[in-house]
Amino acid sequence: MKSKKSSGLLQQLVFVGPSTIFFAIIIVIPFLLGLYYSFTNWNGVSGQVTWVGIDNFKQILTKDPDFGKAFWFTVRFTVVGIILTNLLGFFLAYFLTKPLKTRNVLRTIFFMPNVIGGLLLGFIWQFIFVKGFSALGEATGWHFFNLPWLGDATTGFWGIIMVFVWQTAGYLMVIYISSINNIPKDIIEAAEIDGASKMQILKSVIVPLVMPAVTVCLFLAISWSFKMFDLNLSLTKGGPFRSTESVALNIYNEAFQNNRYGLGTAKAIIFFVVVAIITSLQVKLTKSKEVES
Amino acid sequence: MEVSKKYRFGTLATEIIMVLLALVFLIPFYFLFVNSVKTFSDLLTNSASWPSSFEWHNYARAWDITNFPKAFGNSLIVTVISNVLLALFSAMSAYRMVRHNSRFNKFLFAVFVAAMVIPFQSIMIPLVKVMSSLNLMNSIPGLIVAYLGFGVPLSVFLFHGFVKSIPLEIEEAARVDGTSIYGTFFRIVLPLMKPMFVTVIILNTLWIWNDYLLPSLVLQNADLRTIPIATFAFFGQFTKQWDLALPALVLGILPVIIFFLAMQKYIVEGITQGAVKG
Amino acid sequence: MKKRSKITLASMLALSVVLAGCGSKTDKNADSASGDSGKGATKTIHIFQFKVEIAEALNKLKADYEASHPGIKLDIQTVGGGSDYGAALKAKFASGEEPDIFNVGGYTDLNTWADKLEDLSGEKWVSDMVDVSKDQITKDGKIYGMPMNLEGYGFVYNKDLFKKAGITEIPKTLTELDAAAKKLQDAGITPFVNGYQEGWIIGQHTLNVAFAHQEDPSAYIEGLNKGTAKFAGNKQMDEFMKLFDLTLKYGQKNPLTTDYNTEMTMFANGQAAMTQQGNWTQVQIDGITPNMNIGILPMPINDNADENDKLLVGVPNNWVVNKNSKVKDDAKEFLSWLVTSDQGKNYITKEFKFIPAFKSINATEQDLGALGAEVLKYSKEDKLLSWQFARFPEGAWNEFGSSMQSYIAGKSDKDQLLADFQKTWDNLKK
């Protein structure tokens, strides 16, 4: 009995130990330090760190409407973003698992936006919105290209959404493809023999069987869009008039532009708690829909 | 084997629509490429048009100024080592956490999941404090450690979901045959996880290869800089030197595109193998 | 079999630990070699700066300086413009690898960093600083930094287009500016291109005009901090709004989608006659249309010609010395060399293309280009308005910019805008 227990401990250490150690050093400890700063008025530079209790939290919750606005923007962005990327990703995967002649090339193309990293990607798209769209607008005369892209609240929002979907849909597509390919062929064939239509097969066979992939994809999309920073900074910097400011950007500005590091981390803590609650609910919800093996 | 599927009209229509959609997806790459071979004034004035003359020396200059081979080497080392260790450690943790679903492991998993939503910017100052007290600053291994820490949550999460779908019977059979738990994991479970390895490695490669903020904080020595840091050196306070930044960017993403094309074969293979088990 | 896998595991664990611990050790050695400054061997001065534009010239300077100063090495790091220098500098200090020389802006930025800075009042170059550069880097009567350069802005204008529209006199009052804009418009030329998408253009430079025109800008800002002065009802604020409206009335469409690049491209291609910018745009303009016939106009807010014929000139940034640096004497020596030796002066004017902030350094139009020369001319005639935006509460310019964008978009009127300014100031002041 005793030796079994100790070997269990050894296994735990060997299997879980390495990742936990790195995780603890890089995320947990800095996070706890940040937690401490959230109760201070530290400006990020000086040697003076004064404990201010829950003042920061009080100020955020009562006197900072912009934080609420940023939260609301992030929520809207997340909802629209995850729906669009997942729909597009899934349908790309659905069609690209059909016997198309060009499907390997197409898969690569749809995936390619992922090879450009966040900030640079944003700078390029900003270039496209500003220079490219106006050139296209002149050439085609289409109203769509002549909108004031990134210049007002609406086009700013949809501009970021567009880039976000463009970038992430191909990624989710890969996950959906591997999931759809994992569906045993005979199940689909059996359904076809039974005379089920394409829509019926999609709805009653494929979708339920890719639910595990849906969990993963939803989660990925949520955590990406909630933390969205690079795109936001490089596309609109939160403007015009803070109408497209995400929470991550709001936190960053508070900590580094306004030099209120303590207040910034307090915002981060609030944000973390809220998002943690939302995502754990989401994981619970979709997990319950998966078929347990 | 009987792949002789009927290539019907419906499939053709799908194909055409998908190709058109793909062209739309490629538009930004068109901008990226054509502007990378224009002069500075040309790219700002005629951004959408086909280049009137191809300034290939933009590439040569970008190559020299970024010291591309050096930056490429650094990026490669960081990406490869982080990837291998990250995938391995995460697979091990996920396996243990699923198969030994103790209260502690449940808690740990929840912490991993929660940590994924911490915005990086909010912990970056404490992070450099911790890293410098452990002598991890300004070194490639230090950067790798940071990637292991930041990468573990998502990778464990992905493997966690996958391990659940691996039937227990295979492992049990091996255990009955007297194989140790370690042997079971490395020789039986690990090969089964191949499809998820592919996914995890792609995800982490893209992230690490393109990451800017973390290496910009950790690596300060010019000899250690990675491709994104070298590329950003073209963006000044007022002027963005697009005629150099765009070629550098193209040079930086080509390896990843090649990587993905090469990996695609393995994806298909991995998935086929995954299908065998079912 | 069993054993082998155990060994693999153990070695992997060991590897990761070694990776974490050992790799950095080699680095530590390298570091201490350079940190061992007092011991006679080579001393290294670590410089951490943000001006990407001069990074290449600095590398040349490094070679020259090291050649003429044996025993000193310069380690120069430049932070790319994609990220924010302030954040990078804070991270640097948090990590304990504090640079010996770095950049700090005036006023508010100076206050943030003051307790890290060496007092430079005793340096020999202090007496040569131009007057406009002193205030911003002075705290409690001490000078804490060496001004990097002077920069000036106003309305950069296209002289050829002005001629084409038949404008012979340069406008020096608001009425004249309005008339000139009208003439341009009648000639089918867009008078203004406004880069109002950029927070720094609108929230710093544009709004600064209202502050700089105050009779005593310091007193006004002091008053705002104490609550005795207000935005609403201030005479200069009211007048400034007329100028702001004028640029919008005669501006291109979609000012909120116009970023700095677009703004400069339109201007350099002759698609607009004026744009609110400064001498730093010379490089950008030369890159698109070399030898353009351009100059800088004042930004008048009323009809008093004497009061308005001035450019807005200030010090964008300063070189400072870390007071905890082990090589601070060498760092001071280096800064001193930069502005007193012929070689250093040459770098400032010919290589960096800076408008010098020192009376003892001469620059020519050839060095600086048309715009720099114009700023230099105004500065020599002492026809200057100051940069006050560095005194705004931290982060305020960002908010001001947002409020002004909101006004441009028609989401608020003038009263609302001034009320927004007030709210921002009161919220962010310390």
Automatic annotation (TrEMBL), chain A:
Major subcellular site: membrane
Location in the cell: Cell membrane
Source domain of life: Bacteria
Organism: Paenibacillus dendrobii
Name assigned to this protein: ABC transporter permease subunit
A Pfam family this chain is assigned to: BPD_transp_1
Gene Ontology BP term (one): transmembrane transport
Membrane-spanning parts: 12-37, 70-96, 108-128, 156-177, 205-226, 261-281
Protein topology in the membrane: Multi-pass membrane protein
TrEMBL record, chain B:
Compartments, as annotated in UniProt: Cell membrane
Pfam family, one: BPD_transp_1
Major site of localization recorded for this protein: membrane
Keywords: Cell membrane, Membrane, Transmembrane, Transmembrane helix, Transport
Transmembrane segments: 12-33, 76-95, 107-128, 140-163, 184-209, 244-263
Family annotation (InterPro entries): MetI-like, MetI-like_sf
Membrane topology classification: Multi-pass membrane protein
UniProt-listed SUPFAM superfamilies: MetI-like
GO terms, biological process: transmembrane transport
One Gene Ontology cellular component annotation held by this UniProt entry: plasma membrane
Transmembrane listed as a keyword: yes
Domain ABC transmembrane type-1, chain residue ranges per copy: 72-263
Origin: domain of life: Bacteria
Family indicated by similarity: Belongs to the binding-protein-dependent transport system permease family.
Protein name as catalogued: ABC transporter permease subunit
Automatic annotation (TrEMBL), chain C:
Family in the record: Belongs to the bacterial solute-binding protein 1 family.
Organism the protein comes from: Paenibacillus dendrobii
Lineage start: Bacteria, Bacillati, Bacillota, Bacilli, Bacillales
Signal peptide: 1-20
Entries under Pfam families matching the protein: SBP_bac_1
One GO BP annotation of this record: transmembrane transport
Keyword field: Signal, Transport
Transmembrane segments: none
Name of the protein this chain belongs to: Extracellular solute-binding protein
